Amino acid sequence: MTAENNLKHQYQVLGLPSYEGIPELLELVGLSSAGKKRAKNFSLGMRQRLGIAVALAGNPDFLVLDEPTNGLDPQGIIEIRELLLRLNRRHQITVLISSHNLDELSRLATHYGFIAKGSMVREIPAEELEKSCRKCMVLKVTDTEALARALDFLHLEYDILSDTAANVYGEIPVSELSLALAKDQCSILSMHEQEETLESYYINLVGGGRYE
Fold this sequence. Notes:
Elements: H1 3-14, H2 22-28, H3 44-56, E1 62-66, H4 74-91, E2 94-98, H5 102-105, E3 111-116, E4 119-125, H6 126-133, E5 136-141, H7 144-153, E6 157-160, E7 165-169, H8 174-183, E8 188-194, H9 198-206
Parallel strand pairs: 1-2
Antiparallel strand pairs: 3-4, 5-7, 5-8, 6-7
Helix pairs in contact: 3-4
């Protein structure tokens, strides 16, 4: 069947009274020029968009998608991503995506639910997750109380991890920090950059195989 016929069939299944919404639906998913083309000749990306169009018949306000970008080339992934963002932002449709493509999810999601062995192990807003995964400098010093005073003076954001370690966010003026610490008789023992990816966050969360 053509893209248009697929949508007509779905309209019949749903008992919708007319087909007047089909052209608008095809335009929404970027298939307005392919309405008469047989779906068997579609690229994988076009098939994915047709599947979303079928799911949108009847104007739902909640859409569930399983691996919507699986198997797509880079251009196809971009097209699906832009479509999902458009559905959410312009049409206020909530989209629940089940996916193992963590990098792609990081470009879309506003909230995350991490599932391991059939159980939800954590739900977290994207802003909080981004803060957990963002780049920082891990400083080891002789006295984190002195470090905290120096970082407050320099207006830097930080998390104290122990008596000798802290995560510091943002660009550090190393010379100024060293001078401020020296005045407080505190020394920097080591400093290294750290950035946790969404993938490593998930692995650490589920225990690297503990749920297998």
